[in-house]
Each structure stands twice: as structure tokens, then as C-alpha cells.
Amino acid sequence: MKIAALIPAYREEKHLAGVIAGTLPYIADILVVDDGSPDRTREIAAAAGATVLVNEHNLGKGASLARGLDHLFATGYDAAVCLDADGQHLPAEIPRFLAAAESADLVVGNRMADVEKMPFARLWTNRFTSWILSRLAGVAVPDTQCGYRLVRREAWQGVTIRTRNYDFEGEMIVAMGRKGFRIASVPVSTIYGDEVSTINPVRDTVRFFSMVWRLSKNR
């Protein structure tokens, strides 16, 4: 397969160069989608060796992922490994996704075997949302909130995803599961450093349950 790495980034001038450097030994082609960052995210990405797309305004993580996947698959790539720009995903674990992709269309990281470092509230939120989304998708996915994943072109082009924020990654699993695409999980490390979450607990919770209600009504 012809594979690229896709990194959505917003205000990630501190961590991004390290993520790109860690990814290059495993995947030579890296696309960064800068989601309207006011800092030097785009300049740092380009200097580190990535191709950069820039959203003129901040559109949300899902919108950046969708734009990046559309771009990569339109230019001939067979699959994309998506990882976060803040250092929470270890590039050294990319080979696990590549191996699983031999028999899967979507490979999702699973942090549930390494939960000691995960904040208690986030652990139970992940378990709850994973239970709901797995039921909607018709396939068990232990960690639906993990953004570390590999997406094959056929799966992406075979679904329509309406959400464009953090709920995007959950809807991706449901949409692909319902279409019969093969979904696998691989263990990944749980890493929390000095990054600042941009998730809004109230707004994004409302978005999640709105998505769940819509998907449950349209089985």
C-alpha cells in the first residue's frame, strides 16, 4: 500500500516537530493540516519535512481530518495513518497499524490496556462512549475516542460523515461499521504530558449526544 501520515494540528508549534521527526522513519510522506493556528504551526511543519494544508479559519479537528483524507486519497494514497500533533501518540507504534491493515479497513488504537496514566474521568467517559458507539456500529471497538488510527481509501470513500469536530472520529467508526467495513483495534500507549486539551466539556458533550441521537434514529 502507498501510505501517508496525516496530522491535524492547531496551536502545536511546541510538539509538532518532534511528532514529525518520530514519524518519518516509518512513513516518508506526512501531511499536516493546520487548522487556522495563530502561532508558527505551519512554518514548523514545513521546516520539519511535512506537506502542509492550511485552513483559513479554525474549522475543527474533524474538518481537518476530512480535508486531509480527501487530499491524500485524491492524490493516489491507499491508506492514511492519523495521529495527533501533541505527542500523545507514539510514532514507534505505527508498524502495529500497518500490520493490522492487511486484514482491516479501519484500525483504531486501543489504550484500554494501559489505563493507569489515564485520568479517572476520561477513562470512564471513554468506556461509556465506546460502549454506545460500538452498539451503534455493530462491532466492538474498545477505545472509540482514540484518534490514533489507520484509514483505508475504500472505507473513507464508502461513507458520509456529517460531523466536523471531535465527534467526527466516533461517527467514522459507526459509519464504517454499518457499511460492513472491517474494523480492528491495536494496543497503543497512554500518554499525557503538558498538552492542553481543546475539548469543551459542555459543548462537545452536547455534540456527542446529538450525534448519537441522529445515528440511533437512522440505523
- Envelope shape: globular
First and last CA, distance = 32 Å
Q: Secondary-structure element order, as H and E?
A: EHEHEHEHEHEHHEH
Helix percentage: 25-40%
Short description:
Helices cover 40% and strands 16% of the residues.
Explain this structure to me?
The protein has 219 residues and is of the alpha/beta class. Helices cover 40% and strands 16% of the residues. It is built from 8 helices and 7 strands. The protein has a 7-stranded mixed sheet with strand order 3-2-1-4-6-5-7, sandwiched between helices. Helix 5 packs parallel to helix 7. The radius of gyration is 16 Å and the shape is globular. The mean pLDDT is 93.
What key phrases describe this protein's structure?
single chain, 8 helices
Structural topology:
Elements: E1 3-9, H1 16-23, E2 30-34, H2 41-47, E3 51-54, H3 61-74, E4 79-82, H4 94-100, E5 106-110, H5 120-137, E6 149-152, H6 153-157, H7 168-178, E7 183-187, H8 201-217
Parallel strand pairs: 1-2, 1-4, 2-3, 5-7
Antiparallel strand pairs: 4-6, 5-6
